[in-house]
Specification:
It is a single chain. By secondary structure, the chain is an alpha+beta fold. Helix content is 31%, strand content 47%. Helix 2 packs antiparallel against helix 3. It starts with a helix and ends with a strand.
Length: 124
């Protein structure tokens, strides 16, 4: 697996996730892509398992738009890699954007890439 191929694949998945958060289908998307034991560590300190993530996303208002910048890929093993980037998300109401350093760790299985860990740290 080449780094460029991995970055392209993981960035495509990350964009698909953000698109689902914008169109209101994030609960289904993350329910499908997260491994059974995956967790999300949010900027407010919450640690959410897969069931909690899908439930919360099913009740969350959609994002209006997003941006992914400063992308880096870190190979963790032959079938595991982290995508690290700055994410900026905007709500429709025009409030200040949410800006955070974000990391998504993916593991490749026979069924494709699975999200095993997502972490965000808010930026001022």
């Amino acid at each position: 697996m080449t780094k460029a191929m991995t970055t392209d694949e993981l960035l495509e998945l990350e964009h698909a996730g953000w698109e689902s958060l914008c169109d209101g289908t994030g609960d289904a998307f993350y329910g499908d892509i997260m491994s059974d034991d995956a967790v999300m560590v949010l900027a407010d300190g919450m640690v959410m398992d897969r069931a909690t993530v899908t439930s919360a996303l099913g009740q969350s208002p959609p994002w209006a738009r997003y941006r992914i910048d400063d992308v880096r890929t870190i190979a963790i093993g032959p079938d595991t890699a982290a995508l690290v980037y700055t994410g900026t998300a905007y709500r429709e109401d025009g409030d200040e954007p949410f800006v955070a350093a974000m990391s998504s760790v993916y593991h490749r299985t026979a069924d494709g890439w699975r999200l095993v860990l997502y972490q965000q740290s808010a930026r001022a």
